[in-house]
């Protein structure tokens, strides 16, 4: 029956109870998707066997490219090729401008507070760029698991603030994903290690990625992961090592600061290459093609590299010290130090971490994939596939949350490293007689002054009944959920007047913006899906045509009368004609007609096949290729 | 799901006493979170999710309160009908206040000494020693919670507030020194 059997991939599979879930590590440099299959967590490769998806999106003439294909365009089409977008997530235009010199793209002067990068496909926000990466990983997961994902766990740096978390969640929404949970990257790594090794005790996770640094100290007790404290820097990573090396190359090769984007990309490329080479060698040759196409060549040795990156590594060690203090843990109480993130491959990083913690750090799981693997395990549990699972994650908020009070000072409501979810309230009062409204300004950060903290939201409590100053009792409640996302509610208690906001950060997207993007992407998704179905049907049509023609060559004359043959040829021609048109239904229909019109022929072939088989042949030989006709 | 009208001690199945076994408290905390945490209701209804969130937040608050000597004392006082407004009331013990002023000056001066780290270490040890003494005093007060003893506990909590703040400031100085020299 193989000759004309048509089965849609996926349809043939029997439905089962197992819910498809995946963990996604949305990284600065690379992203990964992992899932739990038959009890083991594994990262999923693309069709070419690559597990790492470069976090690069290119808006090319032919459409949107993601991953390796996009990365290859980084030097030739730098303005339309966007990498390290994670560094811009949840950041305002001012923040982005402060990174300005390092970013090769052009920003649109838009009214919105969100930075938008100019590309040939129009202006795109960091959320949209991230959504493209997520879509690509989602497709990979669905292709390899054979069905739609019921939910995902997406990892974020523990030190991400509310705006950055919200932006990540928005990107997932835009990509059409159901997010079970945002999970802190070091916690995800701890899961991957903890469940593997079943080691109870206090662990430190040192996570240095492409653009972010986290340090978490957590206690593992029989499957319960309690984060005791977390610290870090959401703008420090391997990219900064690259920038430091690029600075050295510029100095050595006499390249000016205002080099064009293509030179900047080449510089970054050369810098990254040198950094990677120096994880193995003591010295490496750096070759840099200059603007006049001449080559500059120089030697970079490990000592020089170390001088360049030591100030950056020192920052990570300072953060480790503070986090241990916050956790009230001494260095000798720590069982293990786990290394996570590609940048922990740099020998100097390992050396410094080893010095500080006075022990050899653990590197037994690939630092690139450990976060995705841990996320997949949590996704699997949240999907309900592991009902007996004892695993429980108790995480903390990385940065203090507070309110602006008189004089631009910050009153902390929830201090950093408070276990989430958490609800805390603070009472305020009016300071003027007859005051009927109160402005509420929510901020995040450790500094005393509002201007030094990140502004998350402003809103107003109105309709306070007029009273003498100090008589009103205004209760402001902060709620942080298990994803680390904040909502705030204010209420005047004597009258019951209420106001509340979900923190849509000043830098975030409004719900309308998200809705617009969603509509646009849904429209595109339909187009994409239709196009894909058409291509699939066309491929199917050609497969059928070829198989039938091959069969006819073999035994058409023996098994069919001239009349029968003419009938089949007519069906065959109508499939050939339909495949040239862009009408899915017509192709499908023609194939069906052909199928039923050929039934008797298939039957005869099978009978003939059985006879042949007795003579030492198999049916498949008749189908496989032209050469079999002999 | 969880009876949110239970007080923190009831929630943790502990007698309403000042002395608390921290490991037992932690163990019970894990059990409670294991039952109510939102992750356990990822596939649940919105109502279940909302309740789980509320319950988990309540358990966290209870745990934070019970494991911290000052917050626990204040909470236990409130169960005895003594409501304190932290931050709004202060001790009138002149000798204690004088000592606090001096210690603050010591801390300020310490930034500029040659062996800042060692001196700071000694200073912090001294402060935590004083805090421990206050904890013992409160423990005794709550053993026989008479009116006077509760009043004494309240006064001791006020002092503890000062010392906690001083300790936090010392930590901030330590962090600053580390950033300068670390």
From TrEMBL, chain A:
HAMAP family, per the entry: HscA
Database matches in SUPFAM superfamilies: Actin-like ATPase domain (SSF53067), Heat shock protein 70kD (HSP70), C-terminal subdomain (SSF100934), Heat shock protein 70kD (HSP70), peptide-binding domain (SSF100920)
UniProt-listed InterPro entries: ATPase_NBD, Heat_shock_70_CS, HscA_NBD, HSP70_C_sf, HSP70_peptide-bd_sf, Hsp_70_fam, ISC_FeS_clus_asmbl_HscA
Gene this chain is encoded by: hscA
UniProt-recorded name of the protein: Chaperone protein HscA homolog
Role this protein plays: Chaperone involved in the maturation of iron-sulfur cluster-containing proteins. Has a low intrinsic ATPase activity which is markedly stimulated by HscB.
GO MF annotation: an example: ATP binding
Recorded superkingdom: Bacteria
Annotated organism of origin: Solemya velum gill symbiont
Record carries keyword Nuclease: no
PROSITE patterns: HSP70_1, HSP70_2, HSP70_3
UniProt KW keywords: ATP-binding, Chaperone, Nucleotide-binding
Family: Belongs to the heat shock protein 70 family.
UniProtKB/TrEMBL annotation, chain B:
CDD domains, sorted: DnaJ
Residue stretches making up the J domain: 7-81
Superkingdom field: Bacteria
Signal sequence segment: none
GO BP field: [2Fe-2S] cluster assembly; protein complex oligomerization; protein folding
Key words of the record: Chaperone
GO cellular component annotations of the record: iron-sulfur cluster transfer complex
GO MF annotation terms: ATPase activator activity; protein-folding chaperone binding
Pfam families: HSCB_C (PF07743)
Subunit structure: Interacts with HscA and stimulates its ATPase activity.
NCBIfam families: hscB
Function, as annotated: Co-chaperone involved in the maturation of iron-sulfur cluster-containing proteins. Seems to help targeting proteins to be folded toward HscA.
Recorded family membership: Belongs to the HscB family.
Protein name: Co-chaperone protein HscB homolog
Organism: Solemya velum gill symbiont
